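Ticket #4471: structure export looks truncated?
Reporter: QA, pipeline team
Priority: medium

Steps to reproduce: submit the single chain below to the structure queue and open the exported record.
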Amino acid sequence: MELSTTIIPPSAPHTHTFVFLHGRGDTAQNFALSLNFSQDSHNRSLLENFPSFRWVFPQAEMRQTTALGGQKTSQWFDIWNVTDFSDHEELQATGMRESVASIRHILANEAAMLDGKWDRVILAGISQGAATGVHTLLNLNIPQRLGAFLGFSCRMPFPGRSLAQTRGVLNLEDAPDRGEALRDTLVLLQHCADDPLVSVEWGRNLRDTLKGFGAQVTWEEYPNGGHWFNSPMGIDDAVEFLKSHVAQVSSADGTMTTQVD
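Actual output as written to the record:
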């Protein structure tokens, strides 16, 4: 299944690609536009901070919502009960399996555009998009790490399992049997304590789960921001994380160069 995408090309020579997954009920185009309203302390959006990035926003399929009698909505996978994700948990697997397979394909295409440099590809998501991104990261069978994974307002689907058991839920072809890419990919998780939809406790559980799987996780928690980005502090922190770990710095002539960690 090939997903449609909204693409914002780089305004400087292309160095990295940022694949960003929207939340449930949203669209790729709307999400891309909404990022302009979440700015750092210098009144710049994420996109404005990284002019050499190619921004790719995949569009989730219109999928049936079982709890609403089959009504279709834009979602990466179905959910029965948004207040108790363990309720009819198995409904999440089919859509997530298909979505993760499609996102892996997008990531592979983007890495190929960068001469196979997977460490120049960043995967990120918010809400259900971030949850889908987590399972994509767990199921990447690639020769090197991703540039980074960033998750906002996120939880861990199918919690309480080992890494092998978690991969077994989706049972994807070519799923890795080891964890080098997961362990080597730096992870940033941000969550607002007043999030009314995805409890911050679920975010902490995700943090602890990924750490238990061997991931290197940076956790940032903010007192407010709801089910969205904290701004400006959260955007400041995301920009600093990317500049420090994805190693982008602005040179004197305004181009973007690669800094060795």
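Status: closed, not a bug. The export was complete when the record was re-opened. Leaving a note from the reviewer for reference: The radius of gyration is 17 Å.
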